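User: quick one, fold this
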Amino acid sequence: MSRPRAFVETAALQGDRVTLTGDGYHHARRVLRLGPGDELELFDGAGLVARAIIDGAPHRALNLRIAERHLQPPPAGPTVTLVCAELKGDKMDLVLQKATELGVDCMVPVTTVRSVPRPAADARKRRHARRRKVIREACRQCGRAYLPEVSPSRPLAEDLATHAGDEAFVLWESTEAGGLAAALAGSTAQSGIVLLVGPEGGFTVEEVDTAREHGFGEVTLGPNILRADTAALAAVTLASAHLGRLG
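Assistant:
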């Protein structure tokens, strides 16, 4: 049985003792009911993992003693980047959570012509902080040692030019486009695989043309029209399976 896990900052894992507070404390103490003598696995999201033993439970905190620590190597092979148009409601959080569990390495929310309304700057900062928290929690749950990177939301046009050298695909409901699975099977990507998924209303023809100009190949996920969040997770699943990250 795996140990319960908690995220901590890298600096906290450098010494022999850690004080767990905030969300980590709440989950360990209030949800799992852990106390003195119980063990936790601590991770910093950058590969450092430690086995820790609780030896004290003061008010709203857990005191832990580091028993051992090690640095896990990063995943081998090409990275998987999901570039996903902003989605309505809490769908984006769901995509971030599940894509993390499925092995994505980087996620880039983008605004498109048919995206949801753009929030003000302060709201964007709060949203980005929440998304980082969603990813940390997903990593805690699924056992990943490395946090996927999530970028602040940016316009699609700003992102398209940043993937030179990667093998990039745009999901598009075109009768002429081939399937993503077949495209991945023929992939020779050395550095990364990029998956571009549109909003609920889909990309405009002009956006797909621009993606094509930046080296994105058009692919589909079959004859059924999938919801945007379903399409994003299906694409990540196919890419992770292609790289051997799923059994």
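User: anything notable?
Assistant: The first strand starts at residue 5 and ends at 7.
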